[in-house]
Amino acid sequence: RFGFQISISGGFSKVVGRAKRFGCETIQIFSRNPRQWQSEPLAENEVKVFKRGIEEEKINPVFLHIPYLPNIASVKEDLYSKSIRSLEEDLLRAQILGASYLVLHIGRRITSSEDETRERIIQAINNAFDEVKNKVILLLENASGQGTEFGHTFSQIKAIIDGVDDKNRVGLCLDTAHAFQAGYDLSREKRLEETIGELDRLIGLNKLYLLHLNDSKTPLGSHIDRHWHIGEGHIGLEGFRRIVNHRGLSHLPAIMETPRKNDTDDLKNMSVVRGLVK
């Protein structure tokens, strides 16, 4: 099932129409402005229209993405507390919107050691889960390793999941561009098999709930996060053909976060990726 990150501009009642226009079978959305801390309460009538539309058009699953500002790895106590509150809020908002999953950028460390960073992330997730008791599954998105990003290796992500008390509520979102930029070569068959094998061995394919299908504008191991159109970047068309047809991945929902100047970009990426499925 393929879809896109869909804009909530103008309200949630507009989302399903946009998703239909691009042929989405699954979608990812923000629940609020991703570049602000403050948020308005979700309007009941908007939520109703959104959920009815999702059901009628059989768009599922729905993924919510946490805003860009929170950093649950921060050693600054004020930012750390705000980030945990933001995570708790989005766990609640996901439930209200009927989203089964919440996608999280793991965090950035500035002065802390890797061990300290990991422990703060684990503590933040456990605190949020203690505060919000629902069935929304938190998906940790692998990073490209740009700057001080944490979570660009499968072993780092495994260590976080190992530390979470309620393991039923945490899983993985695999971003293909980020993985490639972090040094996992998805462009070649042998390397793809090795990457999926390592992921399965360390984390478990049963913990992988979502693919972010993005090509990479930057080379393998660049640690520079630049998404590009499917088949036009360094992973390439054949790389994506193998990814979408891989026995361990082909059943997963896939969200594209490819660059868009206008609707044509999304329509083209959807057409390309559908054309790769055997």
UniProtKB/TrEMBL annotation:
<dbReference type="GO" id="GO:0008081">
    <property type="term" value="F:phosphoric diester hydrolase activity"/>
</dbReference>
<dbReference type="GO" id="GO:0003677">
    <property type="term" value="F:DNA binding"/>
</dbReference>
<dbReference type="GO" id="GO:0006284">
    <property type="term" value="P:base-excision repair"/>
</dbReference>
<keyword id="KW-0479">Metal-binding</keyword>
<comment type="similarity">
    <text>Belongs to the AP endonuclease 2 family.</text>
</comment>
<feature type="domain" description="Xylose isomerase-like TIM barrel">
    <location>
        <begin position="18"/>
        <end position="262"/>
    </location>
</feature>
<dbReference type="GO" id="GO:0003906">
    <property type="term" value="F:DNA-(apurinic or apyrimidinic site) endonuclease activity"/>
</dbReference>
<dbReference type="Pfam" id="PF01261">
    <property type="entry name" value="AP_endonuc_2"/>
</dbReference>
<dbReference type="InterPro" id="IPR036237">
    <property type="entry name" value="Xyl_isomerase-like_sf"/>
</dbReference>
<keyword id="KW-0227">DNA damage</keyword>
<keyword id="KW-0234">DNA repair</keyword>
<keyword id="KW-0378">Hydrolase</keyword>
<dbReference type="GO" id="GO:0008270">
    <property type="term" value="F:zinc ion binding"/>
</dbReference>
<dbReference type="InterPro" id="IPR018246">
    <property type="entry name" value="AP_endonuc_F2_Zn_BS"/>
</dbReference>
<protein>
    <submittedName>
        <fullName>Deoxyribonuclease IV</fullName>
    </submittedName>
</protein>
<dbReference type="InterPro" id="IPR001719">
    <property type="entry name" value="AP_endonuc_2"/>
</dbReference>
<dbReference type="InterPro" id="IPR013022">
    <property type="entry name" value="Xyl_isomerase-like_TIM-brl"/>
</dbReference>
<keyword id="KW-0862">Zinc</keyword>
